[in-house]
């Protein structure tokens, strides 16, 4: 069977699908694919970081209970058909992404491939197993750093990330990672299970498959946690049951997505990226933090001991809406003294649900001494936020307090920030709503959802910054494709070169990874339309191409064909591999030679330094094609290229011209270069 790419024709459809693929593609036309920003992808690459946990555990033979077992998980997964398409791999698909010519960090990880999805996507996942794998109860902050660095190291090579983790401390890790990942713009999902995946009855399979399915089809640029068919914001979760399969809860925020017969994503609830800075990891976390759960009659001496050095920051779990016993001056005094020593204190409620407020005098006393309200944060989110804020040694005490008070990653709801949608939505939406006799907020939201994406793309195309700003303030989902081609507002503004609109969109959460129906990103459209400034901005926020993107290869060959150096230069700036080959094994240099595109050849050979010795599927290098076509100007150019190997036919002609005085092997290098240079002049 040909490779996956060889099966694709230029419209991006399978020209020679297998019977199974035909069936799947047929059903995919019926499947609900709206709101699917990765929908143009035929293949998606996910890194699975396996840290341990019950999901991969086995019963210990000596009766010690479930234990982690290293180095068997990947092979064992290959026996599960919902997680591994053996048939597809047998037919040679495994080579697709294993580009051994390139030294990619994931080449050595086991590669697995899922069956074709309902939406027509092939998910390839690579399993990176931690050494050692752990029961999550044995994890520490150091392990959060290891996971964070794994994502950082592989960020540019993968579309999304799934982290397999024990459930016991999964909410801590998810919360910590949510802060450590700054300017995250890819999907990161933690999952695990209550019963090992290889037991007959288990929850591991549906959790793992569900996480891969979401990560393979949607860009939800947050650290999330997937369990029992629900996708939660990670820093809102708590492990709620030691034995139920519905083990996690998110008491103060409904799930971001639910998996039923359809995948239902609440896009309005997804926390958008709000800067144009590119992804970074802040790995330092302070260990000098603690959680203090108040109880009636708590001893002030014990509190003093708890607050003494090296303690740098604590989270108080107070009563009800944030109350402490205000009739206990000894206790309040301990908190005051600690605050005066610059110990940071966050106040959250010990209630399962709800938020702290200053409604009661018993709570107000806390804020008077400098305690920071943590509103509806979970203990896990509050503690890890404290560790994160204290880990940044460049910050002052005041900076830290300011950071703790802000909603950084959607971890808390600040009362005045609660968004109220009202009938005061934009004039156009309002008049449509009136014409339709909309009478409820629910109906109003339906009208908004139908109209905003279309209005966004129109404004983006026209470069209408003011309208864009208004639509953003009305809660428009920037990553929702609105036209038939699946283009988002960022695609259109990029193609048109509206730099201000592009910047505004990026600042408000537009993803540079969204793909249109053909798999093209905004960067692709910007390069295609030679929008230099936009290309620069998109590159600066981390937009990149896969090394094996067939659409890019085609574009390179088209630019070479058209002798369009300007466009070739832009592709080169975007760090694409200028040696990649089309379906005939031809590099852009081959194409430029065949089309006699002199400027393109000069650029590729002397400015980029491409490999001029690659052979196409007919076994010809660019130089051999030039000789065949008798393009002497090109031959002259190519033989000057520092790395060009002379083909035998040229060596023979060269020898003849040297009057057989020297044999080629005897010539010193300079003489050979001189001869080469003068040969066809
Ligand atoms: N279900 C689980 O994964 C529990 C296990 N003890 C862990 O956290 O690693």
From TrEMBL:
Pfam families linked to this entry: Ank_2, Asparaginase, Asparaginase_C
InterPro entries xref list: Ankyrin_rpt, Ankyrin_rpt-contain_sf, AsnA_fam, Asp/glu_Ase-like_sf, Asparaginase/glutaminase-like, Asparaginase_C, L-asparaginase_C, L-asparaginase_I
Keyword annotations: ANK repeat, Hydrolase
ANK repeats: 485-517, 518-550, 584-617
Hydrolase recorded as keyword: yes
Chain ranges of the L-asparaginase N-terminal domain: 45-269
EC number annotated for this UniProt entry: 3.5.1.1
Domain Asparaginase/glutaminase C-terminal: 288-394
Source species, domain of life: Eukaryota
Keyword RNA-binding carried by entry: no
Name this protein carries in UniProt: asparaginase
Native organism: Hydra vulgaris
Lineage: Eukaryota, Metazoa, Cnidaria, Hydrozoa, Hydroidolina
């Amino acid at each position: 069977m040909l490779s996956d790419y060889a099966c694709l024709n230029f419209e991006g459809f399978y020209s020679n699908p297998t019977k199974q693929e035909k069936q799947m593609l047929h059903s995919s036309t019926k499947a609900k694919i709206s709101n699917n920003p990765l929908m143009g992808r035929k293949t998606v690459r996910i890194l699975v970081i396996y840290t341990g946990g019950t999901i991969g555990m086995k019963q210990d033979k000596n009766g010690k209970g479930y234990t982690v077992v290293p180095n068997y998980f990947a092979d064992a997964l290959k026996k599960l058909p919902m997680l591994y398409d053996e048939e597809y791999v047998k037919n040679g698909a495994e080579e697709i992404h294993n580009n051994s010519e390139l030294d990619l960090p994931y080449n050595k990880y086991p590669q697995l491939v899922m069956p074709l999805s309902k939406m027509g996507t092939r998910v390839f996942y690579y399993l990176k197993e931690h050494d050692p794998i752990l029961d999550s109860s044995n994890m520490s902050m150091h392990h959060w750093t290891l996971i964070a660095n794994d994502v950082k190291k592989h960020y540019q090579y993968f579309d999304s990330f799934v982290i397999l983790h024990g459930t016991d401390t999964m909410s801590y890790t998810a919360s910590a990672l949510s802060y450590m990942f700054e300017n995250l713009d890819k999907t990161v999902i933690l999952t695990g299970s209550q019963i090992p995946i290889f037991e007959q009855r288990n929850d591991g399979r549906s959790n793992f498959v569900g996480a891969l399915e979401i990560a393979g089809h949607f860009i939800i640029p947050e650290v999330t946690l997937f369990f029992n068919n629900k996708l939660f914001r990670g820093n809102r979760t708590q492990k709620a049951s030691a034995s139920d399969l519905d083990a996690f809860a998110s008491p103060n925020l409904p799930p971001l997505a639910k998996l039923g017969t359809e995948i239902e994503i609440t896009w309005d609830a997804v926390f958008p990226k709000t800067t144009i800075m590119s992804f970074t990891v802040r790995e330092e976390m302070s260990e000098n933090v603690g959680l203090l759960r108040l109880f009636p009659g708590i001893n002030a001496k014990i509190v003093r001991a708890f607050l003494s050095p090296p303690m740098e920051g604590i989270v108080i779990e107070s009563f009800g809406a944030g109350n402490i016993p205000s009739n206990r001056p000894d206790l309040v005094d301990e908190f005051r003294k600690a605050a005066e020593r610059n110990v940071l204190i966050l106040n959250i409620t010990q209630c399962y649900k709800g938020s702290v407020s200053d409604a009661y005098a018993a709570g107000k006393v806390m804020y008077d001494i400098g305690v920071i309200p943590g509103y509806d944060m979970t203990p896990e989110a509050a503690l890890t936020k404290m560790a994160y804020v204290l880990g940044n040694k460049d910050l002052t005490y005041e900076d830290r307090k300011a950071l703790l008070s802000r909603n950084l990653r959607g971890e808390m709801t600040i009362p005045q920030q609660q968004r109220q949608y009202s009938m005061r939505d934009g004039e156009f939406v309002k008049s449509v709503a009136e014409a339709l006799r909309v009478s409820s907020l629910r109906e109003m939201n339906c009208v908004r959802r139908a109209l905003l994406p279309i209005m966004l793309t129109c404004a983006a195309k026209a470069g209408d910054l003011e309208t864009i700003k208004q639509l953003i303030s009305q809660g428009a989902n920037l990553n929702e494709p609105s036209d038939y081609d699946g283009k988002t507002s960022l695609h259109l503004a990029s193609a048109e070169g509206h730099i201000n609109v592009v910047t505004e969109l990026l600042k408000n959460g537009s993803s540079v990874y969204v793909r249109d129906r053909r798999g093209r990103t905004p960067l692709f459209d910007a390069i295609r339309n030679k929008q230099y400034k936009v290309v620069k901005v998109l590159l600066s926020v981390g937009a990149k191409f896969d090394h094996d993107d067939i659409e890019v290869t085609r574009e390179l060959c088209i630019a070479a064909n058209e002798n369009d150096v300007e466009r070739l230069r832009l592709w080169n700036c975007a760090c694409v591999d200028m040696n990649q080959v089309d379906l005939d094994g031809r590099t852009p240099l081959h194409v430029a030679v065949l089309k006699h595109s002199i400027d393109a050849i000069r650029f590729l050979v002397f400015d980029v330094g491409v490999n001029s010795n690659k052979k196409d599927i007919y076994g010809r290098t660019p130089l051999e094609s030039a000789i065949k076509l008798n393009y002497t100007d090109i031959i002259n150019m190519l033989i000057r290229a520092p790395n060009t190997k002379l083909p035998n036919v040229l060596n023979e002609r060269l020898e003849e011209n040297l009057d057989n005085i020297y044999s080629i092997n005897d010539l010193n290098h300079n003489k050979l270069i001189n001869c080469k240079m003068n040969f066809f002049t």
